Amino acid sequence: MFKFQRHANDLTDFYQKRYKVNQMPQIVFKDDEENSKNVLGRTGQYDPHQQIVTIFTTGRHGKDILRSLAHELIHHLQNERGRQNKGKINYEYQTNKTAA
């Protein structure tokens, strides 16, 4: 279990109570040594089709990991409420090969 897992659980509990989402996304904490070496590497991503939040953890401070988790959870909320692709910014799940 990660050192920050208790805090991640607290954050997701707060999120669920505050926003009353219909279904929580699956949350995956992923170690990725290659990604961590890239200054522009991924910190997190949300797949709206599978409703999976992935947070990259290698070499990151727990507080930064939690910040990424909060950010990606908001994308899930936008997806559930039908606002994922509205407005000027398209939050479609990205597979940016250059950032990996």
Overview of this protein structure:
By secondary structure, the chain is an alpha+beta fold. Helix content is 39%, strand content 14%. The chain has a three-stranded mixed sheet, with helices on one face. A hairpin with a 4-residue loop joins strand 2 (44-47) and strand 3 (52-56). Helix 1 packs parallel to helix 3. Residues 87-93 have low confidence and may be disordered.
Number of helices: 3
Strand order of the largest sheet: 1-3-2
The count of strands amounts to: 3
- Coarse structural class: alpha+beta
- Rounded average pLDDT: 86
Main beta sheet: strand number and arrangement?
3 strands, mixed
What is the subunit arrangement here? single chain
Please tell me what the overall shape is. Answer: globular
* Percent of sequence in beta strands: 5-15%
Q: Give the fraction of residues assigned to helices.
A: 25-40%
For the termini, the CA-CA separation is: 24 Å
| CA-atom Rg in angstroms | 14 Å
Order of helices and strands: HEHEEH
Ranges where pLDDT stays below 50 over 5 or more residues in a row are: 87-93
Please sum up the structure shown.
It contains three helices and three strands; from the N terminus they run αβαββα. It has 100 residues and is an alpha+beta fold. It is globular.
